[in-house]
Structures are given as C-alpha cells and as structure tokens.
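Write out the bound-state structure for adenosine-5'-diphosphate.
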Amino acid sequence: MSLSIRWKVTLAILFALLCGFVIAGVLAARSLAEQELAQSGEALQVSTHLIALDLRPLVTASSLPPIPQLQTIVRELSQRARARVTLIDASGRVLADSAVRDGDLAGVENHRTRPEIEQAVATGSGTDLRASHTTGERTLYRAVRLGDPGAASAPLYLRLGLPMTALEHELTILQRNLTLAFGSAFLIAVAMSVWLARSLTRPLSDITAAARQLAGGNLSVAVRTSSRDEVGLLADTLNRMTRELRSKIEELSEDRSQLLAMLTSMVEGVMVLDSKGRILQVNPAWERMFGVTRNEARGRQSSEVFGHPKLNALVSAVLAARTGQEGEILLPSGRCLNVEASVAGGEQDNEACAVLVFHDITELRRLEHIRKDFVANVSHELRTPLTSIKGYVEALLDGGKDDPQTSVRFLDIILKQSDRLNLILEDLLQLSKIESGQVQFKQEPLHIGSVIERTIAMIKPLADKKQHRLIAQVDADLPLITGDQERLVQVLANLLDNSIKYTPEGGQITLSARRLPATRTGPGDGVELMVSDTGIGIPEADRPRVFERFYRVDKARSRELGGTGLGLAIVKHIVEGHGGQIHVEANVPSGSRFVVRLPA
Ligand code: ADP
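---
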C-alpha cells in the first residue's frame, strides 16, 4: 500500500517531533538528576565537614570513649546531619554506625576496602555512590580522615551516607511531570502537524485532482492556488499547459474539420494508403463510387476491396516505384474513372504513403463520344448529297449534257441534292446557334391556343396531302405562358411534320393542350402539349435517343422522306430554352406520342 503525501509528511513530522521530545526528555531528566546529585554531594560535603569539626575533640583525646557512647554520639550527629554517620578506625573496623544496632556492630564487615575509605586513606577524603551493603539502599557516601596526617595516633575515618531514596523519589516525580509535559506537547504537535501537512499538501491534492480531470478529457479545468512557492509554480505551469493543450486541440480539431469538410464536399473520390497498401482513409465520394463504406474499407488491403486488376496494378506500381502514376479504369457499373496516384511519403504503418484521387469522367467520355459521332455523322450527311451532285455533274460533262432530257433530269436531281445540303446546313447552323446561346428567345406572354392555331393552319395542307385526320384538342382554362411564339410554332410544326411523315396515309394526328395536372409540378403552373399519331411508332430502345443529332430509327426512310435527323434535337433545345421538358412515349394502340411540358 502506498501512503499519500499528506500521510508521509505527517508521519515524518511526527517522527521528528517524537525523536526530539524523547531526546530532550532524556537529556533534561539526566541533567536534572545530575544537578540534584551534585547538590546532594555538596550538602553532604558540608555536613561531613561540620561533623568532622564536632568530632575533633574525640580524635585529639588520648583514648576513645567506649563503643556504646560512640554509638550515642554518632546517632545524635546522624539526626542533626540527616545522614547515616559511620566512624571507622585506620584498619577499616567500624567503631560506630548510626544505622546499626549496638549489638550488631561487631558483625559489620570491615570497611577498609570501601572506595570512599580507600580514597580518604590516600587523599584525606573520598566519595562514592552505590547500594549500601549494610542497609541495601542506594547511598551517596562521603568519607574524611579525622586528625592530622602527621599525628602520632592512628587516624579515624568519618563517613556520612546520604540515602538517595528521597532524591530518587523526587527524580521519579520530575520524570513523570516531564513525560506529562512532553506528552501534551506531542499531542498538540500531532494535531498541528496534521493541520500543517494538510495545508501543505492541499494544493498538491488540488493539482492531482485537476490532472486526473485533464487525463479524463476535461480541458476546462483550472487549479486555483494562492501559494507563491514551488507548488504555486507547479499549479501555474499546469494551468498554462492546460491552456496551451486546449488551444492546440482546438486548432487541430479546427484543421481537422476543415480538412473533413474539404474531403466530404469533394466530387472526386479520395483514398489514402499506407506503405503496405492498407486503406487508411476514404471520402464520401469514394464510398459512392465503389459502393463500399468507410468502415468496411479502413484497415483492409486495397486489392481485397477492389478486385480490379488494372487498379490493383496501378496501386502496386505506386507503392513499388514511389512515384506518381495516372490511369483510367472502367468499373463494372459502367462508370469511367481517371485515377491520379501521388506519393505522400509515409513509410510507417498508419502513415499516408500514397494518395489516390478518382475523377468520374463518364460524362466527359460520353460527350467526347457524342462529339466524335457528330463529326462522323455531319461528314457522312454532307458527303451523301455532295457525292450525288458530283456524280451527276460528271455524268453531264461526260456527255449527259448533250441529251436535253437527260440533262434536265440530272440538273433536277442536282437541285434536289443541293436543297438537301442547304437544309442540313441550315439546321446545323440553327442548332449550333441555339446551343451556343446566340439565339435569344423572346419573353412574351402567350396564349398557347393561338400558337396551336397558327401551327395547324401551317401544317394542314401537308396533312391533307396524306389524307390524315388532324385533330386539335385545346382545354379552355389554359394559363398564359411566357416565351417565343415563332419558336414554339417551330416546335409544334416539327412534331406534327414528323407525325405526318412517319404515319402511313389516312392516319390520325392529334394535337392536344391541357393545364398541367396539379400533382406534377404544382397546382396548374404549366401547360402540357401532346402530339400523337397512329403511325409506325418508335421502338422503346430508340426512344431516349431520337433527340440526339442525326439519330434516326430508320436512316433510309428518313432520308427518303427528306429528313435531316436534326429536327428533334432543335425541338429539344427550344423546349429546354423555355424551361420545359420533352419526351416521347408509345401511343395506344399504335404510333408515337410526343409530350412537351412548359411552365406557365
Ligand atoms: P428526321 O429529319 O429524320 O425526321 P428528326 O430529328 O425529326 O429527324 O427525327 C429523328 C428520328 O425520330 C426520325 O428519323 C424518326 O426515325 C424518328 N421519329 C420522329 N418522329 C417520329 C414519329 N412521329 N413517328 C415515328 N418515328 C419518328
């Protein structure tokens, strides 16, 4: 188990305090004991001196008094000095002792070897502290020699013994008081050190809590501390680090969202690969192109995802050569993609090594195809009448001109082919003008009824020629439309002309106009025109293509009927130029129906 800093600090302070208190207590107790002992020693010395003075007559007398008298004297002196008094002769025999009964005196051990006596014999005085052999109490002894060193009679030794019991009792009380005082001080110190450790470590705890929140992703956290020391500095640094981290993360996420917006809004598909060909990133356009989601693609080998040999070869080439590559691939869906692969340089796993950009060029290729077809068609369409004209002119030059009948027939054919050539060129010119925006459609309010009337009047003779029934069905509540009357007449005339051409004699051609049903393009906001016939009809597969330039279902028949193959292309452009739409469908039971919708 690891201790928190607070507890470490608290325990360290307490340990230091405990050591301090114990050492201080022991030293104080010892010095007090020594002081007491020194004081007792001094007092004992004075007492010994005074008693030695009292005993001086005894020493100077020629003989010592009998033992019982001596005992009485030492007991008296002992009471005065409040100490045990012992009188010892030069051989160490105890002559009198205040602590020994008279009868026991003879049995008292010789004291010559007592340390204080030995010192007194040698120096005149001696001191010792020990347990008494006689009383068993710890006693402080002081011995002095009585009489002069040079005297004829043998010297006597006076010894005072001060029992230490009282002193030791006092010292015990002192120690107890000291322990009590230090114990109380220690308890106060415990409380103080806990408080101190808490206040010292609180900023650290705050910093720890803030760091935890930071690690949990909360970047708005801030450490509040008023201390100016290292902890304050640490808190400031942490706050600054948090601010910088926040601003860096904001900057990064801003960059990321901009990058994401760019990638998401791109029409081109983007795929990022690492050096091993694993897909790291793709954008939504890529997902749409390949029908694979980002989650399915990421982390997988690109070759696994595509299974397209040409694309896989291109990826392998980029990764192997580490140079940009370009190619074009055709997807099974029919989409044509241009692939541009560039090297990003990453060599580690999960580092961008190659970036592939896919452009969908299906429309471009389709337009190119149409353009090529158009050029081929124009050449072909122009060459046919020209070849015919050239042929007949050569025939005239070769002698045909000499026969008036033949020359008139040939010249008639040449004229017809020239007219056809002229017609094609006129239609082409008109188409090109409309396409390039050179033709400005008028914007005038029109009654569609009057447009229909004009067209019918114009077309009726043609219809009559082929004995067609021409029927006009015009609703009464048609809204006004805005547009160019001449051009709209051209549209209807073209459609009716086609119906007449492609319907065998005696057919029925109907031109109807009605307000657009409310469900289609809003409530009555347009006009729907329909040209239906009972003619040969258009096979379903050809219907979407009849509006292309030079597209004809039956080329020979169209040419024979004087068609250029450009009529419906012009019609489509005029209708779309008016904001409308045109399509063709099958008429029931037979024939075709062209439907034009124009906005009001
Ligand atoms: P064309 O000058 O050949 O008539 P268009 O552009 O007007 O050229 O028409 C294109 C082709 O559409 C025609 O060649 C013909 O095959 C077909 N087509 C147009 N209108 C009709 C129709 N009413 N019935 C059958 N086929 C039609």
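---
Residues 498-499, 502, 533, 535-538, 546, 552-554, 558, 563-569, 592 surround adenosine-5'-diphosphate (CB under 6 Å).
The domain at 365-436 is CATH 1.10.287.130 (Helix Hairpins).
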